[in-house]
Automatic annotation (TrEMBL):
This is Class I SAM-dependent methyltransferase. InterPro entries: Methyltransf_12, SAM-dependent_MTases_sf. It comes from the Bacteria. CDD domains: AdoMet_MTases. Keywords: Methyltransferase, Transferase. One of its GO terms (molecular function) is methyltransferase activity. It comes from Pseudoalteromonas caenipelagi. One of its GO terms (biological process) is methylation. Residues 47-138 form the Methyltransferase type domain. The lineage of its organism: Bacteria, Pseudomonadati, Pseudomonadota, Gammaproteobacteria, Alteromonadales.
Length: 251
């Protein structure tokens, strides 16, 4: 059994998504909590689940050069893009199916942004913890349920993409229960808004239009973002406040 993400959707939107990430490399900071909590060490074997085109991969790779970074995703197109971004590193391995990986073969595991597409979140939590050694942990970050981003996906994004966009968004209670079902020794959950920073409404519109491959003009996207999200003006930037939830499951 693989992570239940719609690989067709991600194969289709990979180039559009990567365009947004490459053009606005400093917009996203949603990986910061995970990188801090993961605390990757030079000699460790790290498993990244649902790695996509490599946003988090690029940050982890320099931290465990003496070990191994196993990069998993079920969408081949996204993994090909991922490979090109970290080709300077020789300690990475790629796989499509987590079942190809031996249990207790990794020190830690991490996943960012793909969680809400995983239909069997109990299975993936159990599987991730099975792959890490005793004393290890699995860190997850994704958009929060019952929030502005969840409503935006359900009411807007799902209706203006060729592939749709439906997901099971995580909540505090869901993460606690998933830890219990997976027999985690401890589960820590944090929930807060992550600022996505831009110079103008036009940049906001282009980023979100491209990152979700929306079938609408980027100016209309900017209007929708202002409708659904809190936007703060700080330090000369427009900061779109995106609700996230993070969990750390200890084995």
């Amino acid at each position: 059994m693989q992570t239940n993400i719609d690989d067709t959707r991600f194969n289709i939107i990979a180039q559009s998504y990567e365009y947004a990430i490459a053009k606005y490399p400093d917009a996203r900071r949603d990986g910061d909590w995970l990188i801090e909590q993961l605390d990757a060490q030079p000699d460790e074997t790290i498993l990244e689940i649902s790695a996509g085109t490599g946003f988090l991969t690029e940050q982890i790779a320099p931290q465990n050069i003496g070990g191994k970074l196993i990069v998993q995703d079920i969408a081949p197109n996204t993994l090909e893009i991922n490979k090109t971004k970290v080709q300077a590193f020789s300690h990475l391995e790629y796989l499509l199916d987590l079942n190809e990986l031996d249990n207790e073969s990794c020190d830690k595991a991490v996943s960012l942004g793909g969680w809400h597409h995983m239909e069997d979140q109990i299975w993936i939590t159990k599987t991730a913890l099975a792959k890490v050694k005793p004393g290890g942990y699995f860190c997850v970050g994704d958009f929060a349920d019952s929030s502005s981003i969840q409503r935006y996906f359900d009411e807007v994004v799902d209706n203006i993409t060729s592939t749709g966009h439906q997901g099971l968004f995580p909540s505090y209670s869901r993460m606690i229960n998933l830890g219990r079902f997976a027999r985690a020794s401890k589960t820590v959950v944090e929930e807060f808004d992550v600022p996505f920073a831009f110079d103008s409404d036009e940049e906001i519109g282009e980023f979100f239009q491209k990152v979700f491959a929306l079938e609408q003009d980027h100016l209309d996207t900017a209007k929708d973002i202002r409708k659904y999200f809190e936007i703060k003006e700080e330090d000369g930037k427009l900061k779109v406040m995106v609700p996230y939830i993070y969990a750390k499951f200890y084995k």
